Amino acid sequence: MNLPNKLTMVRIALVPLVVIVYLCIDDNFWVMDETSGLAFRDVLVFIIFATASITDMLDGMIARKYHLITSFGKFVDPIADKLLVNTVLIMLAYTHQANIIAVLLMIARDLFVDGLRMTAASQGKVVSAGFYGKLKTVLQMVAIVFLLLKNWPFSYLGLPVDQILLWAATLVSLYSGYIYFMKLKKYILESM
């Protein structure tokens, strides 16, 4: 297994750690900032999430630079990304830090796009992530950072940057899903 694939597997292994830390450490244990409610647990989960996100960036850079792109990597990397992002979004919705409607819309879009891609792939058409798909991922990750950090430092200003980013990620997610559908609808609709 090459280094990019090992980094992807590390990202997958960090997902259960995020869940364990988030669900097993009480958010009232060591509140670090009274204004925002930022607690030790939030910072710890942020560090794990940031580490996992950095592995995502590194595995892609290394794979492209050293021509280490594999079928395994193409298959597992997007799964690792969605597993990480969607798991954290679900936990944030569970604790009412993220709007459940936004989270459900983004997860539904991911399932829809994965179905489109699988159908197209079964007919020999491979579709890589486009600009809006990549923008969606960046917005999701940045939104998650601010949600995990309880909107710090913007909580001091009363600006809901975390929620704005969450809804921006949702809108871009839905738009990129629409673009995928328009590109791939002929593979879906041809058998109707």
From TrEMBL:
Keywords: Lipid biosynthesis, Lipid metabolism, Membrane, Phospholipid biosynthesis, Phospholipid metabolism, Transferase, Transmembrane, Transmembrane helix. Pathway: Phospholipid metabolism; phosphatidylglycerol biosynthesis; phosphatidylglycerol from CDP-diacylglycerol: step 1/2. This is CDP-diacylglycerol--glycerol-3-phosphate 3-phosphatidyltransferase. This protein catalyzes the committed step to the synthesis of the acidic phospholipids. Belongs to the CDP-alcohol phosphatidyltransferase class-I family. PROSITE patterns: CDP_ALCOHOL_P_TRANSF. It is an enzyme of class 2 (transferase). The chain crosses the membrane at residues 12-31, 43-63, 83-108, 129-149, 164-182. GO terms for molecular function: CDP-diacylglycerol-glycerol-3-phosphate 3-phosphatidyltransferase activity. It is a multi-pass membrane protein. Its main location: membrane. It catalyses: a CDP-1,2-diacyl-sn-glycerol + sn-glycerol 3-phosphate = a 1,2-diacyl-sn-glycero-3-phospho-(1'-sn-glycero-3'-phosphate) + CMP + H(+). It is found in: Membrane. GO terms for cellular component: membrane. Its EC number is 2.7.8.5. The keyword Transferase applies. GO terms for biological process: phosphatidylglycerol biosynthetic process. NCBIfam families: pgsA. The keyword Manganese does not apply.
